[in-house]
Structures are given as C-alpha cells and as structure tokens.
Model the fold of this input.
Amino acid sequence: MYNVLSGKEPANAALEKAQKKVAEMEKKPGLAIVLVGSDPASEIYVKKKLEKAERIGIKTRLEKLGADASEEQVLKLVEELNNDREVDGYIVQAPLPPQIDYSRVLQRISPEKDVDGWTPASMGKLVSGVKSFRPATPLGVIRILEHYGVETRGKDATVIGRSNVVGKPLALMLLEKNATVTVCHSRTQDLSEHTRNADILIAAVGKPGLVTADMVKKGAYVIDVGTTRVEGKLKGDVDFENVIKKAHCSPVPGGVGPMTVAMLISNLVDAAPSG
Ligand code: NAP
Done:
C-alpha cells in the first residue's frame, strides 16, 4: 500500500538524459577526481563514480595522492585542474587526511568546475537562490521526491542532520520548493515531536535505526540518506521494515546512493560547453 521510493529509476533516467547530451557533444566532457590516501570506502565511491561517468561517454581522470600528501600539494593540484581545459568539472573526494584542511581546499576550487557544489561560492548561491551547482546528495533527494510526484509546497518537511554536505543544503532546497522546513540535529531535545508532524521526513545522520515507525506520520514520505556499514552490510537511519507499513520510504541500499552518483554526472554534463 505504501511505495518503496527506489532511487534506481530516477537515477537511470538522469543518466540516460546525460548520456544523450554527451552523445550530441562534439567535445566530450571531462571529469577528474582527486583521491588522497587509500580510505577503502572512498576508493569504492570513486571507482563507482568513474565507471558510471565512463559508461556514458565522459572522459575521466583519477588524480591520486598518497596519504602523506601535504595541503600545498593538494592546493597545487587544484590550481592545475582549475586551469586544465580538458577538465570541465572535478571533485576532491572527502574525507581528506588530517593534515589537510578541507575547507581551505574547497575555497580554491573554481566555482565553474565545482560539480559537487560544496564550495563556499556554490553554497552562497544556494542561500541566495541563484543558479549554481547543487550538492549531489541533497539534489538526489529532491529528484526522488519529484520523480514520485511528491508535493512539497506548503508541506511540513523535517530534515534530521545539519551537515554542510547534506542536511543544511537540503533544508535550503526544500525551502526553495516552498516546504515549511524544520532542521533537527544532535542537540534537538525531542526529535520525535518534530518527526511525527512531518509530511516529508529526511534522515541524514548515520545512526542505523534512529527513525522508528512510531516517529513517522502515517502516509508521510520518508527519505533515508544515512549509510552505515554494519557487519559488512549498508544500513540506513530508518527502520525500513516497520516504517514501510505506514509510510512511503526509500530503501538503503538502492535509494539515495544511486542518485548521488547520477546527480554528480548531471552536474558535470551541465558544466561542459554543449557546442
Ligand atoms: P555528518 O556530517 O556526520 O552529520 C550528521 C548530522 O546528524 C549532524 O548534523 C548531527 O548533529 C546529526 N545527528 C547526530 N546524532 C543525532 C541524533 N541522535 N539525533 C539527531 N541528529 C543527530 O554526516 P553527513 O555527511 O551529513 O552524512 C549523514 C549520513 O548520510 C551518513 O550516514 C553518511 O554516510 C550518509 N551519506 C550518504 C550519501 C549517499 O550517497 N547515500 C551521501 C552523503 C552522506 P550535529 O550537527 O549536532 O553534530
């Protein structure tokens, strides 16, 4: 009776659209990914992003630096990529080793090539409602809602999580779509008071099972951004098995994850000159 809000169909639709655009381009778009160190999860994510991009005809490049790379080395590479005409967009995969200040790196990425939408310039544009690259994961959440025809205008939306990469930009995007937005975080006193009223509930925390069925309004739309590896399996923040009995809910895996990669690729294709 309630829908599983799979991210696979909207992700495939977005990738197909991007592929068509790429096919029509004389000069194929170029994506670079900077990977510093050898964090196993990052290596998997990067591989996935590169494979998907290559499959639709994007030229890709992996720039690998050792775990002991200095901030100066990363900033030098960023400068090179800013000036490289073969690279239309690039990302510096997070997390970075502790000797490198990620916020300083973000400040140096050219906003025109910021396909992750994480630089202060892109975030500022989001706050001001100006067109820019929107961060891929929150954009993926918005596209899932659109794909399933979920009305946001005038609806109560609660976002759990306020990180710069998910919760905060997502709250702004929902506001842009005329939802009435509540943002919860680790200091929120009574979480369920805010979740129970939500027509749209987004969990972006990283705590498996945080959102239980009693915290969810009947018939609500629940999007689970959380991904935590538990005994080798990917777990979301939402108790999916019970929540799906009273609300529409996205699964983990197969929900927001595929959308994140697809949105990154859509941003890249938009960044490339179409002539
Ligand atoms: P993060 O930077 O660790 O932020 C987590 C947020 O959750 C923080 O704002 C924190 O509050 C809040 N929080 C922690 N405990 C809470 C609690 N008990 N009740 C309410 N709020 C609580 O994480 P993130 O980067 O935003 O990522 C969130 C989750 O999404 C992670 O599981 C991550 O792996 C996943 N993710 C998935 C994708 C994907 O493609 N599927 C992409 C990105 C992230 P404070 O601000 O007060 O500390």
